[in-house]
Amino acid sequence: MNRKRLFAKAVENWPAKVLCLGLAIILFIFHRMSTLESRFFSVPLSIEHMSSLMPSVSYPRMVRVTLKGEAISIFPIVESDIEVFVEMEKYTAPGKYLVPVQWRKKGTALGVEPLQITVDPAEINFTLDYKISKLVPLLPSFRGQVDSGFIMTSYTLNPNQIIVDGPAELMVNISELYTEPIDLDGRRSDFSGTVNIFHREPLILIRGSGNSVFSGVISQFIPVRNIMNIPIAVTGIMEGLTGELETKTGSIFLEADNREAVDRFEPPPDFLKVDCSGIIESGNYILRVIAESQAGTMEGITLRVVPEEVGIVIRAAGETP
């Protein structure tokens, strides 16, 4: 009998009692949540299961994550253990889509309770286009100048072609890519090193490591000057003989480290000559062309004469050709 009375007492006004119990639970949860700590950080957004399409308009690359829980539990969580992603498998045609942002826990975030996770933005607008792949040349970009008196005579890039992926609309304008600037300032010798590929459009993806190996060949630049049509003088001919050159003019090629010395040089009279002092009778001879100048005028200058030898016809005075 007592049990019946106790049961009857318990169920008396049961709707109100259930309502009070529910409110108590809600108040307990609210109180519990109001005492939890919050933590904020940003993580990169990843795109999963994208097939033949790619985003063709910029979209948020970072998503703000809010963790709410007990301080002792949430602050040890490593940021990389909250992954934020969008699932794109169901989108198969170009167009504009509002895609929900999802998250998953791993590592230090697993087993943490209570833990409330929210992301901002919760949805992202994506404009999708067909993905195009293209093989394009890679060209070097330079900054500065090699040291005075030197020149970069050749270079190589390895690789010198790369494959890029991107949305069809943007790939139309991609015909080549460049490296980040390679510094030439003050270089006097060959050099090599790894250089990054300049990537200014985040919607274009570069396959591979994203860099190339550059090798440059630096050579000393020798200033050169050519002086043409310089008369060739006949000297040392014996009395009673005459000489007639087959080639009456020559040229000189000047080389020097000092460009100014090359530019200011002027050949003096009888600079080019042939010496006939060893000839004692008529005949046809081949003689070396000699370049002579006053002391000091050729200092630091290397000279080459063209032609190096000339033919000369030696006759006795009064002898007819």
Distance between the termini: 163 Å
CATH architectural category of the largest domain: Beta Complex
Strand content: over 45%
Run of helices and strands:
HHEEEHEEEEEEEEHEEEEEEEEHEEEEE
CATH topology of the largest domain: RNA Polymerase Alpha Subunit, Chain A, domain 2
CATH class value of the largest domain: Mainly Beta
User: What's the total helix number?
Assistant: 5
* Class by SSE composition: mainly beta
E-strand count: 24
Major sheet characteristics: 6 strands, mixed
Radius of gyration: 44 Å
Work out the helicity level.
10-25%
Mean pLDDT: 86
Q: Write down the domain tally.
A: 3
Q: What does this entry look like structurally?
A:
The strands form 6 sheets. Strands 2, 5, 8, 11, 12 and 15 form a 6-stranded mixed beta sheet that branches. A 5-stranded mixed beta sheet has the order 6-4-1-3-7. The chain contains 5 helices and 24 strands. The model has no long low-confidence stretch (mean pLDDT 86). It has 3 domains: 2-130, RNA Polymerase Alpha Subunit, Chain A, domain 2; 131-220, YbbR-like domain (RNA Polymerase Alpha Subunit, Chain A, domain 2, Beta Complex); 224-316, RNA Polymerase Alpha Subunit, Chain A, domain 2 (Beta Complex), CATH 2.170.120. By secondary structure, the protein is mainly β. The protein has helices spanning 2-11, 14-34, 71-74, 168-171, 259-264; strands at residues 37-48, 53-55, 62-69, 82-87, 95-100, 102-105, 115-120, 123-139, 142-143, 150-158, 161-167, 177-178, 182-183, 191-196, 205-206, 211-220, 224-235, 241-245, 249-255, 272-275, 283-288, 290-291, 302-306, 309-316.
